[in-house]
Design goal:
The longest helix is centred in the first third of the chain and has 20 residues, at about 15-35. The chain has helices at about 1-10, 15-35, 250-260, 270-275, 440-445, 495-500, 505-510; strands at about 45-60, 75-90, 90-105, 120-130, 135-150, 155-175, 180-190, 215-220, 220-225, 225-240, 285-295, 300-320, 330-345, 355-360, 410-420, 425-435, 465-480, 480-495, 510-520. Helix 1 (about 1-10) packs antiparallel against helix 2. The protein has about 525 residues and is mainly beta. The protein starts with a helix and ends with a strand. It has a 19-stranded antiparallel β-sheet that branches. Helices cover about 10% and strands about 50% of the residues. The protein contains seven helices and 19 strands.
Length: about 525
């Protein structure tokens, strides 16, 4: 009877598909509890729970706060919990659930009176195992997959990194003295079977829908006591409809890569790309990237870091393209190719770590029909600053003002990290100056508006545009597992009126700010 009552209480946790999943897990747990230790098992499983639970309060005029009638103040929370099931050192599985984001007071997110929203999400679900008699490690399932970098606080490079389905294989390759050479290969499938509109297919019964995007990458890090160098290469196979079927109502992280892989198409990509994808003259497009990052310990306290990459995506051509206002149409090259290079220098002192960071990424020329000269990328969490690039302590806060990546932009940034004069209290002070490298004639020729945040050009800066950013972040450790972060961030945009016309009017596009407080409980 006790097990039945526990089953009924669990039944109210979720509805729909998540109710089915939770009920299924509950049945398994109850069966295990009912059978007890008397029933033999092949191998004992060690159970472990980990989590990152965050509750934040913010005041901002950056989307989605303070614009188009939205409130400037918001309170929200997100609880991520990892359940590990460990059979041995060679075999384990993990499931990561996310409850949230819950904006307090919003019924659709379970934050209103009565709660009970459908807000339980599956973040990761993967199996880790070691190939018998080897040191080859394999991870299969929904997981975080990324290419390396040193400029972003998250350790992401600028090209690729997010949560997705795939397989990762890693292994040591060579060991000699303090030299270690390793290799990591992954196959990821960011998109498949999302486009369902029958207009895209001449024969809807054809199972070859050309709507999958598969990525294959190889990374080979070389490590010594004082030097870390990591070259990598990546190839993407892109069906002509792989980027279709995604709308602004879906998670922005799903939609945004469309704008990062394709050139500017005029207006919003949701309307522009969906309408023209079926007119691409290639059934399959492809992308290829190569990059290098590393760190060199110059002295015991001075560290030099660097990263860079080149990439090219070719989706073919669209003939008679009228997206830029030409009534007769012209041939549009759906190609994007470019590069970036950046570096940082950090000096670790007893009271803090002063540093300087800089990068350069070429921008588009003034011809919207010949593709893009910017680095193609998947809009990864490249958090080099708190507000401009979304590197705050709570990444579910407001939108990134300047975008997701270094393409079409140059920057110089100075910061002092880990400032500490009082035990358990640290500070970060940062100032960044940015200027665009895109042609000033591009916005008018391509009928662009600034900004297009969901996907497309995002914070597109031309050679006539500049911006600067100031961050102050204070972190205090209340307990060993609980910290509070107080953050103030400001971005000022200096957008040229002759370049953008009236599209840059509005306070939130010129003076952008966020003041936030975030509590983080980790276990």
């Amino acid at each position: 009877m006790g097990n039945i009552m526990r089953f009924r209480s669990l039944r109210g946790l979720c509805t729909g598909k998540w109710r089915t999943m939770v009920l299924y897990l509950a049945v398994l747990v109850l069966i295990g509890a009912s059978t007890g230790p008397g029933v033999g098992t092949a191998q004992a499983i060690e159970f472990r729970a980990r989590g990152v639970w965050q509750i934040a309060f913010e005041h901002s005029n950056v989307q989605p706060r303070g614009v188009k009638g939205a409130d400037s103040f918001g309170a929200l929370q997100r609880f991520r919990t990892t359940l590990d099931f460990i059979a041995s050192e060679s075999l384990s599985g993990s499931v990561v659930f996310e409850i949230g984001n819950n904006n307090w007071g919003e019924a659709s997110e379970g934050g209103a009176l009565g709660t009970d929203g459908k807000v339980v999400e599956l973040r990761y679900a993967y199996v880790d195992w070691v190939v018998p008699e080897t040191e080859i490690k394999v991870r299969m399932g929904l997981q975080l997959m990324k290419l390396p970098g040193v400029l972003s606080r998250y350790g992401f490079g600028a090209v690729f990194g997010h949560d997705m389905a795939g397989i990762t294989v890693s292994s040591p390759v060579y060991r000699s003295g303090d030299l270690n050479v390793d290799a990591t290969f992954f196959w990821a499938r960011p998109y498949n079977d999302n486009s369902t509109d029958s207009r895209y297919y001449s024969d809807r019964t054809d199972t070859r829908h050309l709507d999958n995007l598969d990525v294959f990458a190889l990374s080979i890090p070389f490590t010594t006591d004082r030097v870390k160098i990591n070259p990598w290469v990546m190839y993407a196979m892109i069906g002509k409809y792989a980027l279709s079927g995604l709308t602004t109502t879906t998670e922005p992280a799903l939609v945004a890569p469309r704008g990062g892989l394709m050139p500017v198409m005029g207006g919003n990509y949701v309307n522009g790309f969906e309408g023209y994808a079926r007119n691409l003259d290639r059934a399959w497009g492809d992308g290829i990237w190569a990059g290098l990052c590393g760190e060199i310990l110059l002295t015991d306290s001075l560290t030099l870091g660097f990263e860079g990459a080149y990439g090219s995506v070719n989706m073919g051509e669209i003939r008679n393209y009228k997206g830029f206002g030409d009534p007769n149409g012209r041939t549009f090259e759906a190609r994007r190719a470019g590069w970036y290079i950046g570096g940082r220098l950090d000096w670790a002192l007893d009271w803090g770590t002063p540093g300087i960071l800089a990068w350069y990424g070429p921008g588009d020329d003034g011809n919207p029909y010949n593709g893009s000269e910017r680095l193609p990328q998947f809009n990864t969490p490249w958090g080099v600053s708190a507000l401009g690039f979304g590197g705050g302590d709570f990444d579910a806060a407001t939108w990134k003002v300047l975008g997701h990546n270094p393409s079409g932009m140059a920057a110089v940034m100075g910061q002092i990290d880990d400032i500490s004069f009082i035990e358990d209290l640290t500070h970060v002070l940062r100032f960044g100056y940015y200027w665009g490298t895109n042609s000033k004639s591009m916005p008018k020729k391509a009928h662009m508006t600034w900004p297009s945040r969901a996907d497309g050009p995002a914070g597109y800066l031309t050679t006539t545009d500049t911006a600067y950013e100031i961050n102050l972040i204070n972190r205090y450790k209340i307990y060993e597992n609980l910290k509070v972060s107080l953050e103030a961030a400001y971005v000022h945009m200096n957008l040229d009126k002759d370049t953008w016309g009236d599209s840059n009017d509005g306070k939130y596009k010129v003076d952008n700010y966020r003041v936030s407080c975030c509590f983080t409980y980790t276990f």
